[in-house]
Design brief:
With 356 residues, the protein is an alpha/beta fold. The chain is 33% helix and 22% strand. It has helices spanning 68-80, 97-100, 103-107, 123-134, 143-151, 157-165, 169-173, 245-253, 276-300, 305-312, 319-338, and strands spanning 23-26, 29-35, 42-52, 55-61, 87-91, 118-122, 181-184, 189-192, 195-202, 209-214, 219-223, 264-267, 273-274, 343-346, 352-355. InterPro entries: B_lactamase-like_C, Metallo-B-lactamas, RibonucZ/Hydroxyglut_hydro, Sec-metab_biosynth-thioest, WH-like_DNA-bd_sf.
Length: 356
């Protein structure tokens, strides 16, 4: 546990549910933990005891990527963890593959097609998922991503070729989406299991991230907006090449600063914790420090995003990690640029560089 983690309270200590087995964390709330084939090797998913139109059952929050092993874990959940009751709806916090990848399959009742239920999410997340799954958007791979990162200093042809071959990265993990959905918006109140859960939208990490707060029980399902151990990835990708996602993210954090400090935060990665205001302060300090480093570097000489990556990430990165590291470096550069603290020029080599 690092120094910052010592400032937080982990009520379940080192408890980690076995894949396919639910763990009770709050009244009517169960924690599932599924594996991921990345350096970030897991995702937390949630089961909420529910009743819709008089029928007893469960709301599923987030799904995991499309993968046979994760399907097998879900089948175990369906058979042994739901008390013989059906899933009534599937709620997805945002469009990233580890959250929405299996939504179509769970909505359809798994391999045995046990039920046919609706996906609930925000307009921004559903439409973004549709675009990315169709192959019309790239972000993490494909020719568009290669051109985008080349403009920002990735000149190694082997790396660019790797990016090009990742053009089906999203659609491999999200091969289908439910053809219909129910829209959620900021401040919507959902009745789940007789309790009010308020939608808290957030921006910067994804287009219109949906977290859920139950003030009656003091529980926040934070998705990826507030994580205990790592900072949320905030990236500029090729779909919005002049975006300012870090500004959006930092603004969104203000919606969590009014929550009670003893709120039980259920994050998508890491362990449940208490200390939401403390964690927000840590995240703000983290980004303030990174922005100061970037500004100082650009004051010494013009910097492209590829120059900034080793300043912010002092470890070896694989291609999956590099795409997010480049996006994060650009997010910090863009906040400073759009705030008037940096200027942006395109050099003779075609690379965009920033100067103080």
């Amino acid at each position: 546990m690092n120094a910052l983690e010592h400032q937080l309270d982990y009520p379940f200590a080192d408890t980690l549910p076995e894949a396919g087995v639910a763990f009770d964390v709050a009244p009517g709330v169960k924690w599932l933990r599924m594996p991921l084939p990345f350096v970030l090797d897991h995702i937390n998913l949630w089961l909420l005891r529910d009743e819709i139109d008089g029928q007893q059952g469960w709301t599923v929050v987030d799904c995991g990527i499309t993968d046979d092993s994760i399907k097998a874990h879900w089948e175990r959940v369906f058979d042994t963890q739901l008390e013989g009751l059906p899933v009534l709806r599937v709620l997805v916090t945002h469009c990233h593959p580890d959250h929405i990848g299996l939504a179509h399959w769970i909505c359809a009742g798994g391999d045995q097609q046990r039920w046919d239920v609706r996906l609930w999410t925000t307009l921004g997340e559903y439409m973004s998922a549709c675009v990315l799954a169709s192959g019309n958007g790239s972000n993490a791979g494909g020719e568009g991503a290669a051109r985008h990162f080349a403009r920002h200093g990735v000149t190694d042809e082997a790396s660019l070729d790797q990016l090009r071959t990742r053009r089906n990265y999203y659609s491999n993990l999200v091969p289908a989406l439910p053809p219909q959905y129910r829209r959620l918006r900021e401040a919507d109140v959902m009745k789940i299991g007789g309790r009010d859960w308020r939608v808290v939208t957030g921006f910067g990490h994804s287009p219109e991230h949906c977290a859920l707060l139950c003030e009656q029980t003091g529980v926040l399902i934070s998705g990826d907006m507030v994580l205990p151990r790592i900072s949320t990835n905030v990236s500029v990708f090729d779909m919005e090449p002049e975006g300012n996602p870090l500004d959006l993210y930092l603004e969104s954090l203000g919606r969590y600063e009014t929550m009670a400090e003893d709120t039980l935060v259920l994050p998508s990665h890491g362990k449940p914790f208490r200390g939401v205001r403390t964690r927000i302060a840590q995240l703000r300090e983290h980004h303030d420090a990174r922005l100061a480093e970037v500004l100082e570097a650009c004051a010494s000489k013009p910097q492209c995003a590829a120059d900034i990556v080793p300043l912010m990430f002092r470890r070896k990165l694989d291609m999956h990690q590099l795409t997010f590291a480049m996006g994060e470096a650009l997010a910090h550069l863009h906040l400073l640029w759009l705030d008037g603290k940096l200027t942006r020029t395109t050099s003779e080599d075609g690379v965009i560089r920033f100067s103080a």
